[in-house]
Amino acid sequence: VTAQIIDGRKIAEKLKADVAEEIGLLRAEGASCCLATIGVGDDYAAKAYQRRLRRISDELEVTCNQIALPESTTQDELLAVVDHLNRDPAVNGILLLRPLPRHIEEAEVFAALSPVKDIEALHPQNAGLLALGVPRYVPSTAASVFHVLDTWVDETGEERDAFYQRSRIVVVGRSNNVGKPAVSLAYERRAAVLSIEEWTSRDNRLGSHTRRADVLIVATGVPGLIRAEHVRSGAVVLDVGINPIRDRDSGVIRMVGDVAFEEVAARARAITPVPGGIGPVTDVWLLRNTATAVRNQQMGDLR
Ligand code: NDP
Description:
Blueprint: E1 4-5, H1 8-28, E2 34-40, H2 44-60, E3 63-69, H3 75-87, E4 93-96, H4 106-112, H5 124-131, H6 140-156, H7 160-165, E5 168-172, H8 179-188, E6 192-196, H9 206-210, E7 215-218, E8 236-239, E9 243-246, E10 253-256, H10 261-265, E11 270-271, H11 278-298
Parallel strand pairs: 1-11, 2-3, 2-4, 5-6, 5-7, 7-8, 8-11
Antiparallel strand pairs: 9-10
The structure holds NADPH dihydro-nicotinamide-adenine-dinucleotide phosphate.
């Protein structure tokens, strides 16, 4: 392995200290901080994410109200739960866990979220503000990718502006919750940006795009999609994927990324591991957004 392995846990710890301070200030002012999560169905990764959020919320003394709904939940039932949380003055932030069952019309549920409680910026108003470069909330995963990258750049000693302006950033995966917000954040930093999804990567076209990247951000949910042949020597690789893989012999489930770590690490300048890369930072960022929601609500932003 020649790449520098970026320690996401260390970056998360530092961020957590800052967020704990902000939450402490809120508490001193008599304000409580409450995150509500809604999970529909039985997705393994979503359940694991909820467990991590429970742990970190307890640590930061944030109330974490986790609502688990069955796979059979109808659109109307889900909308009723969202409406209830929107109206509950004790709830500051709402996280809708993905994936949602196929019969749920995601866009309608996103539009039903109270914009001020929509800490993942999925409501059209928040998604629009983010695309315009004036976000109310920056979605936690994309925010974490760039927090990790900013931190790494700072540690190299290069000026952030200079780094981004000379860099081509390629984002593989274009979901509303990760890929698209990541592209918006790359625009904001005035990098050259290329966005790739499944269609654009067909017929062996993936490598012709990704090999142009100085910074490669991968969020596809396809374990090991990015191989050494897809990466330019000296690139910085940020692996967002968290994919549960069951070991055939032992039956034990472990998490792997979208990047074939060992072989890509042999080519890259720096790389985030899975686990221990982007994930731990994302968890903290969500609570940071919850604290921001409390402040927004204090300031009379009550939509
Ligand atoms: P989605 O399934 O919503 O989106 C996946 C995206 O990847 C789509 O745009 C899809 O293209 C694209 N894609 C799929 N296959 C390929 C391919 N072969 N080549 C290029 N693009 C492809 O997933 P999410 O964005 O929600 O999550 C992605 C990964 O990130 C998952 O492993 C998830 O568990 C993980 N994750 C990690 C987080 C963290 O904190 N580290 C937080 C959130 C997610 P198309 O649009 O054509 O379908």
